[in-house]
Amino acid sequence: MSKITLFSAKKIITMDRNRPEATHVAVRDGRILAVGGADCAAPWGEAVVDESLADSVLMPGFVEGHAHMMAGGIWKYAYAGYHDRIDPEGRPAPGKTTIEEVVEGLKEHAAGLPADAPVIAWGFDPIFLPTERLNRHHLDEIAADRPVAVLFSNFHLMCVNSKALELAQYSRETNVEGVMKGADGTPNGELQEMAAMFPVMRRLGIDFRSISADREAVRAYGRVAQRAGVTTITDLFATFNPGDVDTLLEVTGAPDFPVRLVPAMGGTGAAPAEIAAQAAALRGRSTDKLRLGAVKLMTDGSIQGWTARVKWPGYVGGQPNGIWNTPPELIAELVAECQKAGVQTHIHVNGDEASEVAIDAIEAAGRSHPWAGARHVLQHCQMMGADQFRRCADLGICCNIFANHIWYFGDQHVALTIGEDRARRMDALRTALDEGVRATIHSDAPVTSLAPLFTAWAAVNRQTMSGRVLGEAQRVSVEEALHAVTLGAAYTLKMDGEVGSIETGKRADFAVLGADPFEAGAEGLKDVPVRGTVLGGEVHLL
Amino acid sequence: MSLPPLPLTVIGGYLGAGKTTLINRMLRAPGGRRIMVMVNDFGAINIDAELIEAAEGDMMSLTNGCVCCTMGADLFMALGDALDRRPRPDHLVIEASGIADPSRIAMAARAEPELAYEGIVTVVDGGEFPRLAADAQIGPQIEGQVRAADLVLVTKGGAPDLDLRLSVLSGAPVARLEEGTDATTLLLGQARDAKLPVEGRGHAAHVSWQGTGPVMDRATLEARLAARPPGLYRLKGWVRAPEGGVHEVQVVGAGVTLRHLREARETQLVGIGLRGTFDPAEADRWWRGG
Ligand SMILES: [Zn+2]
């Protein structure tokens, strides 16, 4: 008989209504054998008591339904963002609230690099530093003899120093859209969009593919998850080159890899029927720590970039409607082929016209290839109204709502993109739940930081960075928010039978917390310390 | 070792417009070039793998997704791979996805010193275009693809007034792609060492023209190029400058690039125009200043 481990805790919040609280949980073969008091394992035989979590609060391990592998690999570059973060090794990465702080931070970082290595940073966001625009002169202070590049948080822009401009042969004569120029007619260092960024990225060796796929990136992603109390995490838009699955199997299969990884294959690069077949074939290679077989589909862009497809009356500034990354008729074909092959899809929808198109596509697929348990998931769902949530409830469509946006970009949405009234009903978790939708909330890391308790806090409070409350009527309770980041997310991954609550029979995946989130309450939720995780009964403390 | 820049042509157009058919046709008559094709659109017709081999070419499939979902980084990373290929291909052709703005891809050829801009060709299904352009959801992006074009190729019919509409929208020459048309030279230009006549199957879509002669200052040359005859799709070569050296001339569609080089060369221009629209005799009169 395998060994039984009995964990004692200050408190166990199970998210199981049959026994909402407990003090002990018994684990055998990586699964929960019993939950309750000190004697809960008694009927099963001798148990070894583990007291290492005795002064911690346990919750089901958090489930992040929308994040990207790059949230791990990107930390090989210096952090230049506005908000405080923690790197995968647990070192604080303090936010840079002025351009001077960005420059000072990078000087320090450069001093630690080999003399000829380029200085590369990420996460900078000018929206929070409205005084002066970052330009090459600032970055020349960091280094004049080697290239410096600062990637913006949306990865669509970068600013580089004079040396980097010189390497790309950008000069006064350059006439390229996206190579921005100053009043003196010379490039000022800012490069917009990939075409203009590409020559610099190429010469500095910045390759988004490797920081989203190589072994070290996968391991770093695992550490980022562990720090956030996350035991199941998605990678929404994975590319699978030959050998990639083997790498993932090897890395995730290691006993010290602390998270279950759920990559959804990017739905491009082949004809729809072929994509569906590839995903269906990948499913067969799944293990308990690597779940393959879902597909991610793109529709529109982002609201703060004015590229989301929005319904009438459009953007408040009169900007033209956004752009499709996949034409609506192809979205319909992709969903139909996936549904036909029994493949679940995650569909990116920011604007309400995009969500409408996705719901229509799923409805049509349901008529041609009925599949009641498909659980297709709309991702972001930022502008959906009650009518669309009702359709989702009717059709069994799940919604993963971008709750963090309210805090990070809520003020900008009011002032610049869709205006007060539609911003109030953005990311409407309250409406979704009330209309009977299976819903969860997410960070989209690395776009915002991975921290389910912060995401829960954002959904509970709907406070923006300026301190106002945006859309009081859409607030949810602490309990609903915690359900969303555990069982709610597990449901969208079809893993609710295995993870998402602490109950007998499920996998022994826990978030180890320094305080009780219910006691911390609406205000303190985001400040509850995470001490690590337990995955399949293995303790991974920080 | 410094290699000549890799010419890049972007083929745009909506799903089913005939982009793949066009590429297959170029591969069938590559004119001695090693053409590398990057495919970003997948439909009923696929690039013929046998043609790729026969043309000593190369193919890469792309995904256009990425971390934050909308930047299309994969395509550019693949561009980097193409540049790193040895031997480097003679020409890179990117088939843009059905909804993509081809100019966002082609801009890379203007930005990257190791790439040479060889134009945007937008393929239009003549029968479908009016309906697509009027579609409230995708109409603006469909028209945007035509607006970005240096050359518009119409496949599959269309009303008589369509060509005029496309030409007004794009400001570029509009040609019909008939069954059996050999469009390779028109689209990709003369092969680098095309001394020997290249036999393509089918009839050529282009007419060639050559000009020699005068020394010209930059302002005169700019004015002359601005008045170039209709249907002249590409123009390449050198014009002697009075101050010494030459103006290097590069015209693709609507785009004119002039660069002063300190090289001693004779004035020599090679032009390619659309058969039926472009008249070499008219070009002679134009170049002589008549
Ligand atoms: Zn995302």
What does it look like?
- The complex is a heterodimer of chains A (542) and B (290).
- Among the domains of chain A are: 52 residues, no CATH class; 135 residues, Diaminopimelate Epimerase, Chain A, domain 1 (Roll).
- Chain A is an alpha/beta fold and 542 residues long.
- Chain A has 17 helices and 24 strands.
- Helices cover 32% and strands 21% of the residues of chain A.
- The mean pLDDT of chain A is 95.
- Chain B contains ten helices and twelve strands.
- The radius of gyration of chain B is 19 Å and the shape is globular.
- About 6% of the residues of chain B have low confidence.
- At the A-B interface, helix 5 and helix 9 of A face helix 3 and helix 4 of B.
- The complex binds zinc ion.
- Zinc ion (ZN) binds next to loops of chain A.
Please outline what is shown here.
Chain A is α/β, with parallel strands linked by helices and 542 residues long. Chain A contains 17 helices and 24 strands.
Annotation keywords:
heterodimer; A: about 550 residues; alpha/beta; Diaminopimelate Epimerase, Chain A, domain 1; 8-stranded mixed beta sheet; 8-stranded parallel beta sheet; 17 helices; about 20% strand; B: about 290 residues; Rossmann fold; 7-stranded parallel beta sheet; 5-stranded antiparallel beta sheet; 10 helices; about 30% helix; binds zinc ion
What's the overall average pLDDT of chain B, rounded? 83
Please tell me how large the radius of gyration of chain B is. 19 Å
Q: Find the CATH topology of the largest domain in chain B.
A: Rossmann fold
Most extensive interface: pair and counts?
A: A-B, 59 and 43 residues
CATH homologous superfamily grouping of the largest domain in chain B: P-loop containing nucleotide triphosphate hydrolases
CATH architecture of the domain at 73-207 in chain A, please?
A: Roll
The appropriate CATH architecture of the largest domain in chain B is: 3-Layer(aba) Sandwich
Shape of chain A: globular
Question: Main β-sheet of chain A: number of strands, strand sense, barrel status?
Answer: 8 strands, mixed
Global shape of chain B = globular
State the low-pLDDT regions of chain B, or none.
63-71, 193-201
Order of helices and strands of chain B: EHEHEHEHEHHEHEHEHEEEEH
CATH fold-level assignment of the domain at 73-207 in chain A: Diaminopimelate Epimerase, Chain A, domain 1
What's the Cα radius of gyration of chain A?
A: 24 Å
Bound molecules: zinc ion
Structural domain tally of chain B: 2
> Can you give the helix content of chain B as a percent range?
25-40%
